[in-house]
């Protein structure tokens, strides 16, 4: 699938970066001196950052890799986990000549961003965490599940599709279009993201997402100490942006206002904002969400 699945409003190019186990595929938008390095969600790819990059414009540069096991980095195998992805992003920054940057993470990418700030604090100016990066308050019934069971309970169809084949890219789009978080907000960015996600040859095309790595990452995010240690030590400014609806466009959202109280008190520079009329997907993948995120970033980086 071509990276140029939809026309960008800003300069766009891709490049590859060697990391342990293979070569990461990376997208770069814009030409500005204000640099944002971005990490996508658990089954996403770098095109999830395209709406934000268009909203920011050429005065910014947005650099976003396909994390290992996804998209153009599908052949880069594990071991994965938040620390491995954090180190991969440092390699991307080195390759791109970026000394330090604002680091943004959406969903699981937020956890990658937090661990990156812990492992390489000098490379991070501040963090923008978009509906992720802070541990979820899980009900007791979910907290007792295995990592695989919990991952399936949380992301559902996003994981189920990895064992499916599709007759064509159009059939794959037809699979995603009715998703309750996407149906009412479907746009060219979302379609491009999922057309890029599918690979192989008709009539047996498959998503370019490794189930093995997804489960490794889920275990790292949910059950290993990397995230807890990183948050405990976090000294960088944090902007936490949350959606009012969840992964299936439902209420309650992933993050309730009261669940963030402990982080407001624990983290020295923590600010949170509600991105109105969005869910966990459209906060980044719809222009209405991306424009709000972009405006907050612009204000914070010009302060």
The N- and C-terminal alpha carbons lie at a distance of 40 Å
Strand order of the largest sheet: 1-2-4-3-5-6-9-10
State Rg: 18 Å
Please write the string of helix (H) and strand (E) elements. Answer: EEEHEHEHEHHHHHEEHHEHEHH
Largest sheet report: 8 strands, mixed
Mean pLDDT: 94
> How many strands?
10
Poorly predicted ranges: 1-5
Strand content: 15-25%
How many helices? The count is 13
Question: Topology of this structure?
Answer:
Layout: E1 12-19, E2 22-29, E3 34-39, H1 50-56, E4 60-65, H2 82-96, E5 101-106, H3 108-119, E6 124-130, H4 140-143, H5 147-155, H6 157-160, H7 169-176, H8 188-197, E7 198-201, E8 204-207, H9 211-223, H10 226-233, E9 238-242, H11 261-266, E10 270-274, H12 282-285, H13 287-302
Parallel strand pairs: 3-4, 3-5, 5-6, 6-9, 9-10
Antiparallel strand pairs: 1-2, 2-4, 7-8
How would you portray this structure in words?
This protein has helices at residues 50-56, 82-96, 108-119, 140-143, 147-155, 157-160, 169-176, 188-197, 211-223, 226-233, 261-266, 282-285, 287-302; strands spanning 12-19, 22-29, 34-39, 60-65, 101-106, 124-130, 198-201, 204-207, 238-242, 270-274. By secondary structure, the chain is of the alpha/beta class. An 8-stranded mixed β-sheet has the order 1-2-4-3-5-6-9-10, sandwiched between helices. Strand 7 and strand 8 form a beta hairpin. The longest helix is centred in the C-terminal third of the chain and has 16 residues, at 287-302. It is globular, with a radius of gyration of 18 Å. The model is unreliable at 1-5 (pLDDT under 50).
């Amino acid at each position: 699938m071509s990276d140029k699945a939809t026309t960008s409003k800003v300069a766009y190019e891709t490049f590859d970066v060697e990391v342990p186990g293979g070569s990461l595929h990376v997208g770069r938008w814009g030409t500005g001196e204000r640099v944002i390095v971005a990490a996508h969600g658990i089954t996403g790819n770098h095109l999830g950052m395209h709406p934000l990059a268009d909203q920011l414009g050429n005065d910014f540069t947005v650099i976003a890799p396909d994390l290992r096991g996804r998209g153009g980095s599908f052949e880069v195998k594990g071991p994965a986990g938040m620390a491995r992805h954090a180190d991969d992003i440092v390699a991307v920054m080195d390759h791109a000549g970026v000394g330090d940057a604002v680091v943004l993470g959406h969903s699981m990418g937020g956890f990658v961003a937090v661990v990156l700030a812990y492992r390489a604090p000098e490379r991070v100016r501040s963090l923008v965490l978009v509906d992720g990066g802070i541990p979820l308050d899980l009900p007791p019934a979910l907290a007792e599940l295995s990592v695989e069971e919990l991952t399936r309970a949380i992301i559902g169809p996003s994981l189920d599709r990895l064992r499916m084949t599709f007759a064509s890219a159009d059939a794959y789009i037809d699979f995603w279009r009715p998703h309750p978080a996407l149906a009412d907000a479907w746009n060219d960015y979302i379609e491009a993201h999922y057309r890029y996600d599918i690979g192989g040859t008709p009539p047996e095309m498959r998503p370019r997402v490794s189930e093995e790595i997804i489960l490794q990452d889920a275990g790292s995010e949910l059950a290993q100490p990397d995230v807890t240690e990183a948050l405990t030590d976090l000294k960088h400014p944090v902007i936490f942006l949350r959606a009012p609806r969840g992964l299936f466009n439902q209420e309650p959202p992933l993050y309730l206002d009261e669940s963030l109280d402990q982080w407001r008190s624990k983290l020295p520079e923590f600010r949170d904002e509600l991105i109105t009329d969005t869910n966990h997907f459209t906060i980044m993948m719809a222009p209405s969400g991306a424009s709000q995120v972009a405006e907050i970033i612009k204000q914070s980086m010009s302060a």
